[in-house]
Prior knowledge:
By secondary structure, this protein is an alpha+beta fold. It has a domain at 21-56. Helix content is 45%, strand content 18%. The chain is built from two helices and two strands; from the N terminus they run ββαα. The longest helix is centred in the last third of the chain and has 17 residues, at 39-55. It is globular and about 40 Å long.
Amino acid sequence: MVYRLQAGEYRQADQSNFFPALRVQELPQLIAAHREQGRLALRRAVRAWVREQING
């Protein structure tokens, strides 16, 4: 979930204004799945996930 500032308040949203192509709901699960493998592995997994989201 992401939060958007609307009328001076942050509200939950399903989609980012800046990255509308990314399904941010999947990100917490991706992080949890790779957290124990270390920062580098997590970073690579997130990069691969973003590429997959953008390129389909």
